[in-house]
């Protein structure tokens, strides 16, 4: 009777020393993973592109708040174009075939866009705070100039932080021996020492606490305003009625953006809980678990345009104009009166 042979170990690079081990998956599992992850990527790219085109094309959507939303959509669109296609390959094939230089660039870009999302959402929360809680001073406090500064900070600080941290190798200072032991040809992972694991997590948690505090205040004020409007509805003049309607629109926008923040936290919290813990257990989190957390975070960029489609009539109208190619007409640069809300 012939002796049974153990399954052959498959490597990312057959003829290279210190090659990473390739996880063996059936064709059906790999095909299913490609379909799911490519669907997330396509929704991310197409959905956020519609948001960017809609806000930049239609003059009625040119407002400080919408420009912040447009910049956030640009972050998500960039993630779909620059990161997700390569992340699909790395996740499904469990190997990195594009070299260490491109790996480092991808990791920097991935971090930059993740942190840029957090900064954008934080500034959007500040914008909504003034719109709902201080409506009389909103137009003087949140101007286009202020929003451009918000957008600049949201892009520049994450860029400096991500590229500076990774390219100076400050993130692995003191754990070089461990990095050498855990590294192999065909891998592309980002490692942090204990100090930077805590600091990098703080860049996520501090803005999150600020956002939660701001939205808690917004919804408290909005609830009080709603009661006042209900009590005064029969007594107010037409001018006051218009002002109340505007307040209701601002509250609805705040609610929608609050949902976006909530979805963002739900998507990214597992990753940012596990990432610092992983450092303290010597990077023992199984790759499949870590990749699942990362992709749950990436999926947030696909959820945002779906939320816009559900809550914003202007998004649905823009989608209709894009599908019918009517948006190409130079005469269509505005919506009907109430479509921008």
From TrEMBL:
<keyword id="KW-1003">Cell membrane</keyword>
<dbReference type="InterPro" id="IPR050569">
    <property type="entry name" value="TAAR"/>
</dbReference>
<dbReference type="GO" id="GO:0005886">
    <property type="term" value="C:plasma membrane"/>
</dbReference>
<keyword id="KW-0812">Transmembrane</keyword>
<dbReference type="InterPro" id="IPR017452">
    <property type="entry name" value="GPCR_Rhodpsn_7TM"/>
</dbReference>
<dbReference type="Pfam" id="PF00001">
    <property type="entry name" value="7tm_1"/>
</dbReference>
<feature type="transmembrane region" description="Helical">
    <location>
        <begin position="66"/>
        <end position="89"/>
    </location>
</feature>
<feature type="transmembrane region" description="Helical">
    <location>
        <begin position="202"/>
        <end position="222"/>
    </location>
</feature>
<keyword id="KW-0807">Transducer</keyword>
<feature type="domain" description="G-protein coupled receptors family 1 profile">
    <location>
        <begin position="47"/>
        <end position="308"/>
    </location>
</feature>
<feature type="transmembrane region" description="Helical">
    <location>
        <begin position="146"/>
        <end position="166"/>
    </location>
</feature>
<keyword id="KW-0325">Glycoprotein</keyword>
<protein>
    <submittedName>
        <fullName>Trace amine-associated receptor 4-like</fullName>
    </submittedName>
</protein>
<comment type="similarity">
    <text>Belongs to the G-protein coupled receptor 1 family.</text>
</comment>
<dbReference type="InterPro" id="IPR009132">
    <property type="entry name" value="TAAR_fam"/>
</dbReference>
<dbReference type="InterPro" id="IPR000276">
    <property type="entry name" value="GPCR_Rhodpsn"/>
</dbReference>
<keyword id="KW-1015">Disulfide bond</keyword>
<feature type="transmembrane region" description="Helical">
    <location>
        <begin position="253"/>
        <end position="273"/>
    </location>
</feature>
<keyword id="KW-0297">G-protein coupled receptor</keyword>
<feature type="coiled-coil region">
    <location>
        <begin position="222"/>
        <end position="249"/>
    </location>
</feature>
<keyword id="KW-0175">Coiled coil</keyword>
<dbReference type="GO" id="GO:0001594">
    <property type="term" value="F:trace-amine receptor activity"/>
</dbReference>
<keyword id="KW-0472">Membrane</keyword>
<feature type="transmembrane region" description="Helical">
    <location>
        <begin position="293"/>
        <end position="315"/>
    </location>
</feature>
<keyword id="KW-1133">Transmembrane helix</keyword>
<feature type="transmembrane region" description="Helical">
    <location>
        <begin position="101"/>
        <end position="126"/>
    </location>
</feature>
<feature type="transmembrane region" description="Helical">
    <location>
        <begin position="31"/>
        <end position="54"/>
    </location>
</feature>
<keyword id="KW-0675">Receptor</keyword>
